[in-house]
Design a protein that fits this description.
By secondary structure, this protein is α+β, with helices and mostly antiparallel strands. The chain is 48% helix and 15% strand.
């Protein structure tokens, strides 16, 4: 692994930081959160036109930039610094790789160019709270997490050659405004039970969507109801056995992306705290001059740097090496481990920031609570941290007893 950045990676990060500094300040952030979509469409269009961010990791044949997924993960550090609300995670990290990996030539040619130029957003819909399970982040993809049984989840049935879906999914990231949905649904009886992925247009008949109130307002979520909705199978039935593996690969990359994003948010939370403590005076002295305060900040800094190293390694692994279990990274589930460490660093940086800001840190008007909610919200969606680590330990067989012969 080369720990340095390429000139292209430095350029992407620098340009993205400059754009977000101009277009996603505190006032713009709060305005975007109150918008119907939960993000600023003008900012999303600027990210697509000036940087090609939605298609950064998509092949040039489909209008993308053709960069490795590592570059997209590293760019997430900059979006995390400002808690930028955008459909980047839902569209480019969760949905687009599934379309690219499993879709037919016609589906790729239809959807990916529009995703690349930012005119189409997409979302991955799985029954809650099964997102972490579907992505194989907190445990094996065993059980009927997509539905299973006669009720609950999302069911798929085929009649006269047409697939129809019925059921409900909640906590669908950016699902209320996405132009296309990639839906995981259960089909088949007890013997042929399996999970398939389907593409559903945002204007499909019988599709009912509504935005939900979420702990983290910078991650808009939706309730998606499918009432006998006509859907198109993603790929072919013959490739259905590859759905779990594809979801697992997407999960490992999503974890690396989220880890980089959390590191950026933690770094910015610490910066804001240090800036405040350098101005605020108490007992005739600047608060930042107290040794006890300095020790607390130093501990946060060390934790963030450790999390950054893990996140960078996970981003590099997701873009290159493949382990023996088919997942990105020579050590297996490096994405989950990096995400666990990054979320802990963000939670601590945000908590210390709230406390060290004093009374103002606990107010709604201050931004400190947004950083804390990002950590808590991501852990609810993709964690919790102890399960991320436990699953990685199981994958590495750390706690299996081995017999050593002498």
């Amino acid at each position: 692994m080369d720990p340095g950045f390429t000139a292209e990676q430095d350029g992407i990060r620098r340009t993205l930081r400059e754009l977000l500094h101009k277009r996603c300040g505190p006032e713009e952030l709060r305005a975007a959160l109150d918008a119907p979509l939960g993000h600023d469409p003008a900012l999303w269009a600027a990210l697509a036109e000036q940087l090609g961010l939605p298609g950064l990791a998509l092949p040039e044949a489909y209008g993308g930039v053709g960069c490795p997924v590592t570059d997209l993960a590293l760019a997430a550090e900059e979006t995390g610094r400002v808690l930028a609300p955008s459909p980047l995670l839902a569209t480019s990290v969760l949905a687009a790789p599934l379309i690219l990996g499993l879709g037919t030539d016609a589906q790729r040619a239809d959807l990916l160019p529009r995703i690349s130029d930012g005119t189409l957003t997409a979302a991955l819909a799985v029954p809650a709270p099964a997102l972490a399970t579907a992505l194989a982040l907190t445990g094996p993809q065993h059980g009927d997490w997509a539905g299973g049984g006669r009720a609950g989840g999302i069911q798929a049935r085929r009649a006269q050659g047409v697939w129809r879906l019925y059921g409900e999914a909640v906590q669908v990231l950016d699902g209320h405004g996405a132009g296309a949905l990639v839906v995981a649904a259960h089909t088949g009886g007890f013997v042929r039970s399996r999970t398939l992925l389907f593409v559903v247009p945002g204007d499909a008949v019988g599709l009912v969507r509504s935005r939900q109130t979420a702990l983290d307002a910078t991650r808009p979520q939706a309730r998606v109801q499918l009432r006998d909705v006509r859907a198109e199978l993603l790929g072919s039935e013959e490739e259905a056995s590859g759905v779990p593996e594809a979801l697992s690969r997407v999960g490992d990359f999503a974890a690396a992306f989220l880890a980089c994003e959390a590191v950026g948010a933690a770094d910015r939370a610490l910066e804001r705290t240090v800036e405040y403590l350098g101005r605020r005076e108490q007992f005739g002295r600047v608060i930042g001059s107290f040794q006890a305060v300095q020790h607390r900040l130093a501990d946060v800094y060390v934790q963030i740097q450790a999390a950054r190293s893990a996140a960078y390694y996970a981003a590099w692994a997701a873009g290159g090496a493949v382990g023996p279990d088919g997942l990105a990274g020579p050590d297996g589930r490096v994405g989950g481990l990096a995400l666990a460490q990054a979320l802990e660093a963000l939670r601590r940086a945000a908590a210390e920031g709230i406390q060290l800001h004093g009374g103002i840190g606990f107010t709604w008007e201050h931004e400190a609570h947004l950083f804390f909610k990002r950590a808590a919200g991501d852990e609810l969606l993709f964690g919790p941290v102890h399960r991320l680590r436990a699953h990685a330990a199981e994958g590495a067989r750390l706690f299996e007893r081995t017999e050593v012969s002498v």
